[in-house]
Amino acid sequence: MPLSPTAPGPRDADERPALILANLGTPAEPRPRAVRSFLREFLSDRRVVETHPLLWRPVLEGIILRVRPRASAAKYATVWRPGEETSRSGSPLMHYSERQGELLQQELGKSVQVRIAMRYGQPALQRVMDELMEAGCRRIALLPLYPQYAASSAGTVVDEAARFILASRNQPELRTVRSFETAPAYIEALATALEQHWRVHGRPDPAAGERLLLSFHSIPQAMHDAGDPYRAECERTVELLSQRLNLPDGLTQLTFQSVFGPAAWIGPATIDAAGELGRAGCPRLDVICPGFVSDCLETLEEINQLNRETFTTAGGGTFHYIPWGNDSDGAIATVAEQARNVLAGWI
Fold first, then answer.
1. Which DSSP string do the residues of 328-342 spell out, in sequence order?
2. What is the residue-averaged pLDDT of the chain?
3. Which of 101, 167, 182, 278 has the most beta carbons within 10 angstroms of its beta carbon?
4. What DSSP designation does 200 have?
5. Which residues sit opposite 173 in a β-bridge?
6. What pTM value is reported for the model?
């Protein structure tokens, strides 16, 4: 029986195991139509918004998707890479995801095929998995790029992979990484980024009123109350990082950013803390975002623009946003450590 046109022949099948680096995703371009399409997919996920669709859909379609895309597109435009306004690669998240894939492939060598995928938007996770299967791959490892587990982040990536498997007659062998909030390479990457910054600017002095905020993406309080482990995992990261750097009492504060809608979210909110410190005359505020492996709208616009303005306008002094991920040596060491763990025995 002849092979179908899409089935790999015995000579061109690529049977190497695959590692998929999965991130949240990005609009195709910083324009309202593209942002609307992205937000529709993102905010329709029952893991992200747990309100029943019969109640949520009218709000989403009738209010949010009519109002928010234009404002969000303007924010995206401030962080999009110059000269790439019509390219998805102009998104910082996409750019750095692609770089991470390239550098990790170099690190791991030819015995594994490294791919990137997005939970929302393109390249879609199910499409990437389908392409791998069509090419002959039967062993797939999935690494959601969320150091701390939340059902609405890493959980929904695994959900999407499970939906692919449920719909597949020929199922792949699948491994997943749940979280890596205490991983040695991850903690070292965060510490190294701070130490490199402080070698230039000096360590912030709590006795002088200077502070370090460790800002993580927030989740709704209802999700936390229902048993989501996310906050506890953020706290473990902060504890280990503080031990690694021997940080003094009074210097650091754990905060949460990117709240959405009128519901209660876990806090304290990063922007509230920035405003309060500014009003108190804090002479210097350093901010690092340990939950974001790649810079994106939430770090470059929300933290480095909005929170900076909030702090300085309120009366604060110097504001430093300290990136740690992207294509840094520490970020690649972090994903490589997780890759080797999940691929053990396959390569």
1. SHHHHHHHHHHHHHH
2. 95
3. 278
4. H
5. 139
6. 0.93
